[in-house]
Amino acid sequence: MLLLLRAALIIWLYLLGGKAVAAALPFDFPASILGLVALFVSFNIGIIKVEWVKPVADPMLTYMALLFIPIGVGLINYLDMVQTHWASLLACIVIGTFSVMTLVGHLFQRLLKVN
Q1: For the chain, percent helix, then strand, then coil, each to nearest 5?
Q2: Domain ranges, residue 100
């Protein structure tokens, strides 16, 4: 029980930290992403051990797909717009996916050369 509480508290504190940083920024940025980046950096530096958050993170990751169901259902409300602009949407998805994969691949190769 204590391990679950510690894991939940760590994740919650990093989320609150992300919210604090996002509130201080002069532009909108997702607080959850800032919290995840801070948690990732903490893992790499060694401030937080992965085993500390694993008891809560594993079940959250297991059921994360359920969170995307409302988005899919909500998409039905805009089905006529999707049918009208399907080519543009498909182009954005393909180009965006290719761009991210290329960027991550180049970044990974650059990081491998540094180490």
Answers
A1: 90, 0, 10
A2: 67-115
Domain termination site, one of 62, 82, 102 = 62
Enter the tokens of residue 68.
């995307």
Lowest mean pLDDT among 24-33, 46-55, 59-68, 82-91: 59-68
Domain count, the chain: 2
**Nearest in space to 40 (alpha carbons), one of 28, 57, 25, 27:** 57
Same structural domain for residues 57 and 71?
no
Give the pLDDT score at 75. Answer: 82
- Kindly tell me if the per-residue pLDDT of 114 is higher than 80: no
Residue 69's Cβ-count burial label (10 Å; 0-12, 13-18, 19+) is: exposed
pTM, entire model? 0.61
Question: For position 1, what pLDDT does the model report?
Answer: 81
Compute the distance between CA of residue 2 and CA of residue 24 in angstroms, rounded to an integer. Answer: 33
